[in-house]
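Bug #2210: token dump truncated for Bifunctional protein FolD?
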Amino acid sequence: MTNILDGKTIAKKIQTQLQEQTQKLMLKHGRPPGLAVLMVGDNPASAAYVRNKERACAKVGIASFGRHFPSNTSQTELEETINSLNQDQRVDGILLQLPLPDHLDAVSLLHQIHPDKDADGLHPVNLGRLLRGDPGLRSCTPAGIMRLLQEYQINLSGQKTVVVGRSILVGKPLALMLLEANATVTIAHSRTQDLGELTRRADILVAAVGRPQLITSDMVKPGAVVIDVGINRVSDQQEKSRLLGDVHFDSVQEIARYITPVPGGVGPMTVAMLLNNTILSYTKRYS
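Reproduced locally. Full output below:
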């Protein structure tokens, strides 16, 4: 029987630990850790993510300094806001919620965030630290996946691992983290030929391409560990909206040893690692 990798339960456990840590830090340093989540426009999915992050901050005891900007906000105004937050001693983490409206340069804005306040781990300095194996803030979704595997005591050393997706958000940093854990890693993507032939070799398969139910049971090795990063909102014939992952859950769970659900798998772990990064940044400032 397939075991569910329950990210929701593990994330709650982590948040409880972080809440206890935050209480001790406040007594010692006289202020809570602070996180600023910046959102531009009215993307419904982004708005839901931001609400989840702000609620999680409140539960743990992290102060929120986020701002919601209208869609027509200029690049200059956002740069000025980020620079102000870089200087704000109450703020330990800054996150720019993606995607942004087309007229904004997301890469330039991400680079504007100070590396030590880069709560999403996407600044080139932090990605370079990951590449070198140096300590630093790690990209939240990959870090959440690694923590989830660790919590379920899934051995990675020597395991054949296929990551489907090469984004800077998930695929590339996750591949580096898996290599650091001594897994043997292959990265596949939209132009990979005969994807199923490759994924069927994987002891651990990660789907992170944003294509609903791309991975079907005939593409999965029996007994594999399957991590579904996809969150795809689709509508049925009655126009009812629902979330689907990149994995065809119903069929794949019949043969996988472990599998993450959507929702309730990787998503909550991403938020937990965002909180963890904020507290890491806070503690570093006082060390």
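Output looks complete on our side. The chain has two domains: 29-115, 138-266. Marking as cannot-reproduce; reopen if the truncation happens again.
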